[in-house]
Amino acid sequence: MTTTYSYACKEFPGMEACPGRFYAETEDELWKLIELHAAVAHGEDAATWPAEDRAQLKALIKTERAEN
Length: 68
Description:
By secondary structure, the protein is α+β, with helices and mostly antiparallel strands. The protein has one domain (2-66). The chain contains two helices and three strands. The longest helix has 16 residues, at 27-42. The chain is globular and about 40 Å long. The N and C termini lie close together (5 Å).
């Protein structure tokens, strides 16, 4: 079974116009992509995100499982 994690930036409040969408094989890899996107596209430093924002981001991560 293969697991894919995904995140769409536009689902985060205030980012509705952002087309960023990411997929990864692990949740850790997805977090790295989200943090890199935030820095490059939005000029944000993920190290300064409050715990509440991280929790909200985590709630928006979708997990899909498919049989190989």
